[in-house]
Design goal:
single chain, 1047 residues, 42 helices, globular
Length: 1047
């Protein structure tokens, strides 16, 4: 088939409205194109039509879109339609087009030649520096100076995207300040209700507005300084790529004319989401032809999910104002969804309020002059599907979010068995974290799935291990061995390269622990010294050689870091450590190498702008990434497998599947979301939209509209009735959009409720199935010698509450850090805690012996002496000393009137003299203080001191998110779920089992010795019940049996 025949074939299949859009090649045209109406086909066919009907050179046509994949799709369609000529048409993303202008005309831009945009990491580093050096008050809290950095970055990004440079922003703030002065209401009179006229602000509203003004004024200072710093270093950020071109076009007439003369036709895809800066680029290019410019835009305001403040009609209004004679074409036939889905979507979106009207010129028969009339263009035109009604939208629920995922998995299994290709099934969710439950269930149900790209390279286990190796190199440089050295001895790729085995590592680690000596130092002392501390478990010199070789290599890498560029050093370590050869032998090596390259790409960016960049700088950058919640994005391979697709709705834009599941459609997730809007920018940023008429859930409703219209056959919308959050079960309310679907169609002609009682009936079996793949979290032990050694350690181990809590949190951490006791440097926080406990002991022993509290100076002296015994840097010591003395001032002040009756201070249980046994399990522990409650009945309470932030009772009991419970802990009975609460119950268990302790523990108390924000010392008291202690005892037996079963 010839190229003309290809185009004719495509053209003949277009409907009337599509043909009109394709044939109207001259003048401004706006196409309103809903989901599945063939807008991409129209765009490419229109380009082909322009080339066919005119003598336009293909390079004179510019088509702009948002994503590289969309540009690629358009290019491929065009080439298929018109042949190789399609390669000469300029099809690009906005950023790629502007980057090409910058690279081609470097003399027109105030940046370095070949400069690249700031990475997210570089931008955060720069903002941290700016915040540190500016005198800010409203957006720089005293104790958390970087709290507003993320908001400031977003605010400045929004300003740039809307074409507001800092001079224009300053003028907006001047107008804002004038408005505040002119509209300030009088202070409210005490005892009287303030009255206000319609349209006026109350005093409270005015003060909130004033506070936002001050935040914006400081943001302007940050913006101005940020731009100055960028110019000084001749750098730019991602948003500047557009802003710089706008600025250059406005100032450099020659540059603008060059592009105007070479570009005659402009086409813009996804026009509803273009920002003001991007629109300005197009308008400047088209300004040569004024109102008759050949500008063709296609979009759907109902799918605007990226626009500033959800201004979905802003672009359409602006287009009509710029081009009052524009042809407006609405595509009303949708080819993706069946009619039922389109009707549900249309009814749903009618709840949004934002509309737009235009002034249309019409000719009157009686008058040669044109008259004008206002016409309202509906954004909610009903789409007609040639597919027929199709299946009804399915609404379903499950009792929990886990069973909701199980329900979806079971439905997918049926679809696959019926012949539906896996790649034609998608599950869409609101937030990235929502995929965790789905992934766990799909793993257990053996469903192959893929997650839309954009993951974090630093969260991949292989990269994490490599970074740990880097941290070990740095630690050896300072002579401070950490537990990380021992961790690296577990890595398969290092074992393979250097040749050690696990049993030798375990013996050396255990010997180091018993010698209270770092592994590094012990290995350097040789085999004889190691065997001194491991009688009966000796090793040979040959056994030790691989570890010696490894330590020498670590030192060599440290030396090399000072003498090589960081990229060269990085490459050498990859090869010499065996990491890269090992990586290339793994399944899925393409993905693994892509992840590695994503990290190396970030390294190259950092090195390009700091040639002295070294390992310490890289590790500092990683700390900053962690601190600000950033990531190194994994490059999307864009390889589509025959697998079920998991994606957020935002990432699903432009995609379609036969079956689409909408997951966890509950209130405050889909609708009624709380938005972080700490720095609210002026509404005047938008020129064409009055946001006052906007319904609060319009943005979320459009997102739901996009989600449900991804389905080519059926949409299944589900929600859980309960979710487990922050350690407890919460009842959930279905999303308001589900209620709107049902209310708009109360006869249920478009939707149906479907229940799955079999899922609930078999819920226990499903949950067991879900747990099976992850039931064994203790590392598998295969070496017989290693197994014997671990069992010997276990049989001679005395269980403390710290050991129990460590195991419940992470069995591997228990194995390495608790059972093997790998040497670990004591952190400054723990050192401070030790010194503070010593001060507490001094206080109450003095009180117990004399009936009086010690003087503050004596107390501070005791703390200083204790802190001096701790190992820390001079700087850290001075910081902790100063803080500790301040804490003790507050604590000492609040001792007045306090009359405790201590029975024991620093009471030890389970030592060699008084063993404490739970069946055959030895227990031990130390209680800070035991006070009398009732001497006659021999009743006491246990008290534990805590340094650090005051915790709530719910936090202590494990009922809050901040408790950070492991999966195992979340499954425990509520009474023993919280680690802190377990600590108090463990103390009661110790007292109950200790035959030499004749007292009954009635309650437990935590005393937080550091004052809270109000300067108060807080205590938390808990009644300790015998039944809860019994449950804790059963848990300890269960844990020990698990380990005995392993070894």
């Amino acid at each position: 088939m010839s190229q003309d025949q290809n185009f004719t074939h495509v053209y003949n299949y277009l409907n009337t409205a599509q043909k009109k859009a394709v044939d109207t090649t001259d003048g401004p045209v706006m196409v309103l194109a809903g989901p599945g109406t063939g807008k991409t086909q129209v765009l490419t066919a229109r380009i082909a039509q322009i080339l066919k009907k005119t003598d336009t050179n293909p390079s004179n046509i510019l088509a702009l879109t948002f994503t590289e994949s969309a540009a690629k799709n358009m290019r491929e369609r065009l080439v298929k339609m018109i042949g190789r000529t399609g390669y000469y048409v300029q099809i690009a993303t906005f950023h790629a087009f502007c980057k090409e202008i910058i690279d081609t005309h470097p003399e027109a831009f105030p940046i370095e030649r070949d400069s690249t945009p700031l990475s997210d990491l570089e931008r955060y580093e720069l903002f941290e520096d700016i915040f540190q050096n500016l005198a800010l008050e409203y957006i720089k809290p005293m104790n958390t100076p970087f709290f507003y950095i993320k908001d400031a970055i977003k605010g400045i990004s929004d300003l740039k995207r809307e074409g507001i440079e800092f001079h224009a922003y300053e003028k907006m703030l001047e107008q804002w300040e004038t408005r505040l002065t002119d509209t300030e209401p009088p202070p409210p009179e005490k005892g009287k209700r303030a009255r206000k006229k319609p349209g006026e602000l109350s005093r409270t509203e005015w003060e909130k507005d004033e506070k936002q003004f001050h935040k914006n004024k400081e943001l302007w200072e940050v913006y101005k300084t940020y731009q100055k710093r960028l110019r000084e270093t001749k750098r730019y950020d991602f948003d500047d790529m557009i802003a710089l071109v706008v600025e250059a076009f406005q100032k450099d007439d020659l540059l603008l004319r060059e592009y105007q003369e070479n570009l005659h036709y402009f086409l813009v895809d996804e026009y509803q989401d273009t920002n003001a800066a991007q629109n300005t680029v197009v308008n400047l290019l088209a300004s040569y032809w004024k109102e008759k410019a050949n500008v063709f835009v296609v979009g759907d305001p109902n799918q605007a999910i990226y626009r500033f403040q959800g201004a979905s009609v802003e672009n359409m209004l602006g287009f009509v104002q710029n081009y009052p004679n524009a042809e407006i074409i609405t595509l009303e036939t949708g080819y993706r969804c069946p009619q039922n889905i389109y009707d549900v979507a249309t009814q749903l979106i009618t709840h949004n309020n934002l509309e737009f009207s235009l002034t249309e010129k019409t000719e009157q028969k009686s008058n040669s002059e044109n008259s004008k009339k206002t016409q309202s263009i509906s954004l909610n035109a009903k789409l007609t599907s040639p597919k027929g009604k199709g299946e009804k939208v399915e609404l379903t629920s499950a009792s929990s979010q886990v069973l909701e995922a199980v329900q979806i998995a079971e439905q997918i299994k049926k679809l696959l068995a019926q012949g539906t290709p896996a790649h034609e099934i998608s599950i869409l969710y609101r937030h990235n974290a929502d995929k965790i439950t789905l992934a766990e269930v799909f793993d257990s149900w053996d469903i192959d799935y893929e997650v839309e790209g954009g993951g974090d390279a630093l969260r991949e286990e292989n990269i994490r291990q490599l970074i740990v190796l880097f941290r070990v190199v740095t630690a050896l440089r300072t002579g401070e061995e950490t537990e990380l050295l021992y961790e690296t001895l577990q890595y398969d790729w290092l074992k393979k390269t250097f040749g050690w085995n696990n049993s030798i590592v375990l013996k050396v680690a255990r010997a180091a622990g018993r010698a209270k000596m770092p592994i590094l130092d012990l290995v350097e002392k040789g085999v004889e010294k190691i065997n001194e501390y491991n009688p009966g478990h000796e090793i040979t010199k040959e056994n030790l050689e691989p570890l010696e070789k490894y330590i020498e290599q670590l030192k060599a890498w440290d030396t090399a870091d000072a003498n090589k560029t960081f990229p060269a050093w990085f490459e050498d370590v990859l090869n010499e450590s065996g990491f890269l050869p090992w990586l290339l032998e793994q399944d899925g090596k393409i993905f693994l190498v892509t992840v590695l390259n994503s990290v190396f790409g970030e390294i190259k960016k950092l090195v390009n702008h700091n040639h002295q960049f070294k390992l310490k700088d890289f590790l500092r950058s990683l700390d900053l990434i962690e601190e600000h919640g950033l990531k190194i994005t994994i490059e999307d391979l864009n390889v589509r497998r025959d697998a079920v697709h998991l994606s957020t709705v935002h990432k699903a834009k432009g995609r379609e599947w036969e079956f689409v599941f909408l997951f966890q459609c509950v209130d405050k997730k889909w609708g009624n979301n709380r938005k972080r809007d700490l720095i609210k920018l002026p509404a005047e940023i938008l020129h064409n939209t009055d946001l006052s008429s906007k319904e609060r859930n319009e943005d979320e409703r459009r997102l739901f509209y996009v989600a449900i219209t991804r389905a080519k056959k059926q949409a299944i919308v589900s929600h859980p009735e309960t979710v487990i959050s922050e350690g407890h079960t919460r009842d959930m309310v279905p999303s308001m959009f589900l209620a709107e679907i049902q209310e708009d169609d109360d006869q249920a002609t478009l939707w149906k409720e479907v229940s799955h009682p079999e899922i609930e009936k078999d819920s226990a079996d499903h949950l067991v199935k879900l747990l099976q793949p992850i039931a064994t979290t203790v590392p598998e032990v295969t070496d017989a010698a290693e197994r014997i050694y671990l069992r010997w350690l276990l049989d001679n181990f005395r269980w403390s509450v710290t050991a129990l809590n460590t195991y419940l949190r992470d069995p591997e951490e228990f194995l390495h850090n608790t059972l093997l006791r790998v040497p670990r440097a004591k952190s400054p926080i723990l050192s401070f805690g030790t010194a503070m406990h010593s001060a507490m002991e001094f206080i109450y022993k003095t009180f117990q012996q004399t009936g009086n509290y010690p003087a503050l100076a004596d107390l501070q002296q005791q703390f200083s002496l204790s802190l001096k015994q701790e190992v820390m840097t001079p700087v850290e010591h001075e910081k902790r000393l100063k803080h500790g003395k301040e804490v003790l001032v507050h604590y000492h002040e609040q001792l007045t009137g306090k009359n405790p009756d201590p029975l024991y201070i620093e009471k030890m249980f389970g030592n060699s003299k008084h063993k404490v046994m739970l069946d055959d399990i030895p227990l031990n522990g130390r209680i800070d203080r035991v006070d009398w409650v009732d001497k006659e009945n021999k009743q006491v309470k246990v008290i534990d001191y805590k340094t650090g932030k005051t915790r709530s009772a719910n936090d202590i009991e494990g009922k809050t998110k901040s408790a950070k419970l492991s999966e195992r802990e979340r499954e425990l009975p509520e009474s023993i779920r919280g680690p802190y609460k377990r600590q108090l119950l463990f103390y009661k268990l110790l007292a109950k089992l200790d035959r030499g302790f004749p007292y009954e523990v009635m309650s437990g108390e935590f005393e937080f010795v550091e004052p809270n924000n109000a300067g108060k010392i807080v205590t938390r008291n808990f009644e300790l019940l015998d039944e809860d202690v019994r449950v804790l005892g059963e848990l300890i037996k269960e844990v020990v049996e698990e380990l005995r079963g392993r070894w």
